[in-house]
Specification:
Blueprint lengths: L16 H16 L1 E2 L9 H7 L21 H18 L3 E3 L5 H12 L5 E5 L15 H5 L1 E5 L10 H11 L3 E4 L10 H11 L2 E5 L4 H5 L12 E5 L10 E5 L5 H12 L5 H14 L2 H22 L4 E2 L8 E5 L7 H10 L2 E2 L1 E3 L13 E5 L1 H5 L4 H16 L4 H17 L7
């Protein structure tokens, strides 16, 4: 063997000490800290091994069984398996599992179904919408005419009358539902009726509640929407990536071409294998039990926080995440999020609806029960977490308090280990 390749196929992570130190640091952070960020979860060893497999070496373009490159026999089988599992899990006729992310899935649908400059009616990011639905800083915001709807000021919930009025006024080509910080049940049948009235497509982004949809614990958008997008992590607790579902065969070519070659090139086959793995896990009976626990834990956390003079936006939650308003405590999300991170609790700051404060220092925090439930926490543990959040809020600048909470967090985490043999 050439000396140029000495150790190439045998040396592991220790061959790169700087990289090894950073990765092992992240392993320790995850093992000894509590993840409350709604966009994160903890995958199984099965998903880790599928994504870290030799599929990393294989390049394919185009749909399964119609590739532009040869040597795709097993690549085709893996993608076909992921598609079949996605269709079965969500009861959809068609699925595309190639999107590299949820944002790519959304951009591909926009490109496939719309013309540049078409009008899109979507949820304002300030009210809980997602940036990939037309935020001015994104391609979707640049390339399409975006009209934004929000939530009712009193209920902090979707106002179907407002959405209907805006749709009638602006005649959008597409209406987008779903967001990153909206956590109440949605009436997809009513949204479809509005879309049909004005001749629009209805697209639902269910990234934050796909796991609940898969297990019958949240309203199902698939029978009502023209197209549904999701990520495959978050509530599906799987590989990072995106997924598109639809039922109308007349849309198939347009959606598929919107993804490839529209917004991306070759398939990240190792990620598709990870998606196949997590979709297979989601088809098992225990996945419903997991999602039932996600809901119970989120509601326990919301109730415990509410008892501590922390206002829960809209008064509660219908999924595994919530938005808390720190205004009654005289604090900002930026201050509390940084303090909680020092205490071993990872959260993200977030604007609340009609927030008078800027995104950089908003009035709220977004919290999730997804990852904690994955590692085995129950309602008692989430009540304890609420108590830790309260202690940090009382003294966000006190290093001794943060260190004390951190020690207690580590102790709880070690009672619920992840990847214990690593």
């Amino acid at each position: 063997m050439s000396t140029l390749h000495h150790g190439y196929f045998t040396a592991g992570l220790d061959a790169d000490p700087e990289l090894a130190a950073a990765i092992r640091g992240e392993e320790s952070r995850q093992a000894d800290g509590i993840e409350l960020i709604a966009s994160e979860n903890i995958v199984s060893r099965l998903v880790l091994e599928a994504q870290g497999s030799v599929l990393t070496n294989k390049t394919v373009e185009g749909p399964a069984y119609a590739r532009y490159y040869g040597g795709a026999e097993f690549a085709d089988a893996i993608e076909a398996l992921a598609i079949e599992r996605a269709r079965r899990l969500f009861g959809a006729r068609f699925a595309n599992v190639q999107p590299h992310s949820g944002s790519n899935a959304n951009a591909g649908v926009f490109l496939g179904l719309l013309k540049l400059g078409d009008t899109v009616l979507s949820m304002n990011v300030a009210a809980g919408g997602h940036i990939s639905h037309g935020h001015p800083a994104t391609l979707t915001g640049r390339d399409y005419s975006i009209i934004r709807y929000g939530v009712n000021r009193e209920t902090e919930r979707l106002d179907l009358d407002e959405i209907r009025d805006l749709a009638r006024e602006h005649a959008p080509r597409m209406i987008v539902a779903g967001g990153s910080a909206y956590f109440r049940a949605m009436d997809f049948a009513a949204l479809r009726a509005i879309a049909d009235e004005v001749g629009a497509y209805l697209m639902v982004d269910m990234a934050h509640f796909a796991g609940l949809v898969a297990t019958g614990l949240y309203p199902d958008p698939v029978p009502h929407a023209h197209v549904v997008t999701t990520t495959t992590y978050k509530s599906l607790r799987g590989a990072r990536g995106g997924l598109v579902l639809w039922n109308d065969p007349a849309l198939s070519d347009r959606i598929n071409y919107g993804i490839f070659p529209g917004v991306q090139g070759s398939v990240m086959l190792h990620a598709v294998a990870g998606k196949a793995a997590c979709l297979g896990e989601a088809l098992r009976p225990e996945f419903r039990a997991y999602n039932e626990a996600v809901l119970a834990n989120a509601r326990a956390l919301a109730q415990a926080l509410g008892a501590q003079n922390v206002r829960i936006v809209s008064g509660g939650t219908d999924m595994g995440l919530m938005l808390v308003d720190l205004t009654p405590r005289g604090l900002t999300g930026e201050i509390v999020a940084k303090a909680l991170e020092h205490a071993g609790l990872a959260v993200n700051k977030n604007q609340i609806p009609f927030d008078p404060r800027p995104p950089e220092a908003p009035s709220g925090l977004r919290l999730s029960s997804n990852a904690g439930t994955t590692r085995g926490f129950g309602t008692a543990e989430f009540a304890t977490i609420a108590g830790w959040i309260e202690r940090v809020m009382q003294a966000p600048q006190d290093a001794a308090t943060l260190a004390e909470v951190k020690d207690e967090v580590v102790a709880l985490c070690r009672a619920f280990p992840i990847y214990p043999e690593r």
